[in-house]
Amino acid sequence: MAAPIRFEVRARDGAARAATLVTAHGEVPTPAFMPVGTRAAVKAMSPDELIAMGCRLVLANAYHLALRPGPELVEQMGGVARFMGFKGAVLTDSGGFQAMSLAKINSIDEHGIVFRSHLDGSRLALTPESAVRIQEQLGSDIMMSLDECTSYPVDHARAKASMELTARWARRGLEARRSATQALFGIVQGSVYPDLRRTSAEQITALPFDGFAAGGLSVGEPKPAMLEMAALSASLMPADSPHYLMGVGTPADLIACVAMGYDLFDCVLPTRNARNGSAFTSEGRVSIKHSRYLRDERPLDPRCTCRCCTGFSRAYLRHLYVSGEILAARALTEHNLFFYAGLMREAQAAIASRTYDALSKAFAAGISEVSEQAKDHVV
Amino acid sequence: MAAPIRFEVRARDGAARAATLVTAHGEVPTPAFMPVGTRAAVKAMSPDELIAMGCRLVLANAYHLALRPGPELVEQMGGVARFMGFKGAVLTDSGGFQAMSLAKINSIDEHGIVFRSHLDGSRLALTPESAVRIQEQLGSDIMMSLDECTSYPVDHARAKASMELTARWARRGLEARRSATQALFGIVQGSVYPDLRRTSAEQITALPFDGFAAGGLSVGEPKPAMLEMAALSASLMPADSPHYLMGVGTPADLIACVAMGYDLFDCVLPTRNARNGSAFTSEGRVSIKHSRYLRDERPLDPRCTCRCCTGFSRAYLRHLYVSGEILAARALTEHNLFFYAGLMREAQAAIASRTYDALSKAFAAGISEVSEQAKDHVV
Fold first, then answer.
1. Looking at this predicted complex, what is its ipTM?
2. Integer distance in angstroms from the first to the last C-alpha of chain B?
3. How far is CA A101 from the centre of its chain?
4. Nearest chain A residue (CA) to B73
5. Cβ proximity of B232 and B194 under 8 Å
6. B73: nearest CB among A295, A327, A330
7. Which residues, at least 6 apart from A341, have a Cβ–Cβ distance to it below 8 Å?
8. Which of A5, B227, B228, B318 is the most core-located residue (most Cβ within 10 A)?
9. Are A43 and B307 within 8 A, CB to CB?
């Protein structure tokens, strides 16, 4: 039986890799950043705009889609990519993270999670088996194993118990899986404890997953701990499988974590910040509502070629934002995602030419330069 | 001195005309519907999307732009079209309608309107002279004379006084005008009284305006009265000048009023209804939130070729709308404006081939057909 995905490494530079992830819905050049399409829509964006900027893989949330419109409907409509009119691939999370963060939890035990919907209060259960079943109905190209995303701070004993539960759930999810065309990724947990990360990686990578993720990071721990645990987790993953760092992060985080050997990233930062008027640019962050942009005729990012930067001045964007126009959210979201996509393309090129270290240093230098100009606006 | 606009009639069919309106910012084929871009943005739309659907003229509101970001800023940024990144022409209203409907009026007298800003309560005055001055700063291609938009119902004596005031203001606006590149249109008032409409038309068309509008309609009067007054007003306007019916209307209204000789229209219906989940289609109105569309794989309008109809199912659009996704507003707005633009293109073609009466009848037949299917969803 053919594998549901193929991961073809084209180049390596240190631990960093440039690869092609081949899915049932097309090829994804990596390293890649996945825009978050919570409810089968990347907020404010049209799917053809994502394709136009080179995005070939988006993330959708199984929890949200399971509640509304329901996995049966999405299945009937041909799967989540077809439902949302996206001519690319989709990764779904397991739903566990949202069930634990958005819903009112009734219980988490060996069996799974029992929670109340944040929409209508109805009582629902999510098990390792149902999480896979729901994602199979959603028809995503990459499914995620149900894990317990360990919160922070947490003591060693509780982190260990949580990690062990994640491993048992991982085995059950793999056994429940029926689809031959959808990949299933396992998740390494262990909070900020190196010994637990090691054990978790041993447990999870011993299982026949199609790829591996580091979870439980960017949940409140200090940045050095995040980077240390991300690096450790990546170093323990098989070299020939895709590595996904969940929920990370800023442009600087991505540059750092590509160097560790991560291939896939997701984060709400570029889309959520955009709706709050905050843009990532080659000169650092720009908070467009600031009065300093009132009469600023320059584009958001002078080095950017996106539709927002070629079409609008900062003065106009500020006017749109202050006026509450939908176009403000559209324009800034498009720019931020274009910026992230461009960063990943630069990373791919640098790895291919074995100059990733230089890119990394230039990026860091750019940040410190920007820091001098606007201290609270660092990328 | 060259006229600020030229109006070149290409074909006539009865009173209907197909023409080209030549402005400083390009040519506008008429009959044309102007999307409403209240605050220098057509809500949810990107300016290049308007151009792509053939829209060459949008309306912006002088009242809103005068309050925020202010006419000086727009002037400094090169005028409203350049400010909003729209590669086409812009018509601005005088600000009077919004000053009377949105703001708290302190007084309306011979001098002008004194009101309080709906944004911050500041006390402001709008006179025939300042209305022209503001629009000159905004740099629109077509400016509107300050009028008193007579409310409905109103008795004959008050309607007459209001109409006479509008005529005196019209003269003052013309005298105040300095720009040689911006057209200025006069507005015929007179409420629902034929004798007042006649007198108003005589007064206004005697003045050297570049075009003429019928105002004070679609303000609450019965539809037959609106159509009768619109027809009467149009019949009294010079045949070689552009005719603009303000604030009208539904697709059926547009089809009826093009036959009367109107060339330009504006209305919030296609954009506002879109944001409320209501679409204009070749099969009548579709209220996308309705549960009947839950599993509907068909496009919004099977005969439509817009991005929304070629990319999304009704089921997906309903999901987006119910979920409060920005993409719902985007997709429905784009569809509705595409539908209106298509209707105007059909009108232009029918006038050119002298088959406007047939188009009109086919359109009416389409409506009654639809009425049979969904009584409360008539176009």
1. 0.96
2. 45
3. 17
4. A295
5. yes
6. A295
7. A33, A53, A54, A55
8. B318
9. no
Enter the tokens of residue B56.
């060459």
Separation of alpha carbons B254 and B379, rounded Å: 11
Amino acid code (one letter) for B89:
A
The amino acid that residue A261 corresponds to is: G
Are B159 and B193 in contact by the 8 Å Cβ rule? The answer is yes
AA identity, residue B183: A
Q: What are the backbone angles phi and psi of residue A5, rounded to the nearest 5°?
A: -135, 160
Could you tell me if A81 and A25 are in contact, meaning their C-beta atoms sit under 8 angstroms apart?
yes
- pLDDT tens per residue across span A273-329: 999 999 999 989 999 999 999 999 999 999 999 999 999 999 999 999 999 999 999
Can you tell me the distance from the alpha carbon of A217 to that of A230, in angstroms, rounded to the nearest whole number? 8
Give the alpha-carbon dihedral of B37, B40, B42, B46, to 10 degrees. 150
Q: Where does the pLDDT of residue A368 fall: very low under 50, low under 70, confident under 90, or very high at 90 and above?
A: low
The SS3 call for residue A201 is: helix
Task: Kindly state whether B35 is in contact with chain A, defined as any CB-CB distance less than 8 angstroms.
Answer: no
Work out the number of other CB atoms within 10 angstroms of the CB of residue A168: 12
CB-based contact B85 A311, cutoff 8 Å: yes
Cα atoms in the 13 Å half-sphere on the side-chain side of A177:
27
Helix, strand, or coil (residue B192): coil
Burial A263-293 (b: 16+ CB within 10 A, else e): bbbbbebbbebbbebbbbbbbbbbbbeeeeb
State residue B105's pLDDT score. 83
CA pseudo-torsion sign B82, B84, B90, B94 = negative
Q: Which residues of chain A lie closer than 8 angstroms to B77, CB-CB?
A: 295, 297, 313, 315-316
DSSP conformation letters of B95-115: SHHHHHHTSEEEEE-SS-EEE
CA distances from B299 to A214, B267, B308 (A): 40, 25, 8
* Token pair of B358 as six digits: 């047939």
Q: Which two tokens mark B148?
A: 């008193």
Direct distance between the N- and C-terminal alpha carbons of chain A, in angstroms, rounded to an integer: 45
Under DSSP, is residue B258 helix (H, G, I), strand (E, B) or coil?
A: helix
pTM: 0.96
Distance from CA of B181 to the nearest CA of A (A): 24
